Target: Ubiquitin carboxyl-terminal hydrolase
Amino acid sequence: MENTEGYRCDDFVVNDTKLGLVQKVREHLQNLENSAFTADRHRKRKLLENSSLNSKLLKVNGSTTAICATGLRNLGNTCFMNAILQSLSNIEQFCCYFKELPAVELRNGKTAGRRTYHTRSQGDNNVSLVEEFRKTLCALWQGSQTAFSPESLFYVVWKIMPNFRGYQQQDAHEFMRYLLDHLHLELQDGFNGVSHSAILQENSTLSASNKCCINGASTVVTAIFGGILQNEVNCLICGTESRKFDPFLDLSLDIPSQFRSKRSKNQENGPVCSLRDCLRSFTDLEELDETELYMCHKCKKKQKSTKKFWIQKLPKVLCLHLKRFHWTAYLRNKVDTYVEFPLRGLDMKCYLLEPENSGPENCLYDLAAVVVHHGSGVGSGHYTAYATHEGRWFHFNDSTVTLTDEETVVKAKAYILFYVERQAKAGSDKL
Model:
């Protein structure tokens, strides 16, 4: 019998016997893992609750106050997922949309409340990423428990995102992109019999201003995170200009090479790299090298050219990914450079294609969350997140949530930054 590895990795095994022995083995493994998983979960939960019984109380300004934030249990190297979920839970418009969606009872009868194996033959109709994402967001910020276990969401992720199966460390940025893309696609298909557009229309501030569509009709994902880039390419031989508009959910920024040896903010040799340096590197005019020759339609052959990006439309939430991991001949190295970033007043006007068409407040952004990677490689290390909630900064480290301050946040070596568009009534600090 071939492909026995399929029993553990959830691949679909085609060559079953006439007596269905493969399926019997699968069911036996399921029963064993369910019982072991349940026992282990109860043991870990008891230890966590006992050890952190008093951790929900903090002293703020001399008085004792309760932390309403809830941590997320690590299910086995799932800190990459926890950091992204905690960050998204603090994007107020985005989070509120999902929390207000109607609930769906996906499982009943024998499988209610149990982990189940899924095969490709079962299809995807019995799982909903939107529903499990909604339930996870609802569990956070209630203050009713020290930590929530996102196991149901994680196994839906396993089902629909095969890249994230298993318990090895994953890239938080890659996970965020997959998560947003799949939420977007599921919302496009309709959720619980209700079209996403009908729900989106209830929030006019999202639907009226949203003009960025990625892969079809708009959803709350594109309404919140969606922006548009203009990609401008010029042939250096004949001067022909080519323009292309590309929608985006986040911007991936290189850390300029001249800063890559500077690992800390207080290191004396040379200037500190700033977020503005990374944005400037992204939008500056660039001459393409020999491996990226542009096919000029006027010259009718590949020619040397220049490329420049402009932002044609800014999103409501600007997600900036700092490219800290780079492939070498044999491995993926980390750029550990400290990048200075503002907590408030990030001014994006100078990167706009038509800045004169934007009001002074429309280009200012305030920081909502930061994802940090600790360690030396993408396949190892640990992810945590900082996020602000009701004027206070919190540090999310899996099950542990602690109150922190702005001075600590700005010292972090950011990997992903979430900036929220400032409302007109806010102040006018600028980067």
User: Anything to note?
Assistant: The two ends are 64 Å apart (CA to CA).
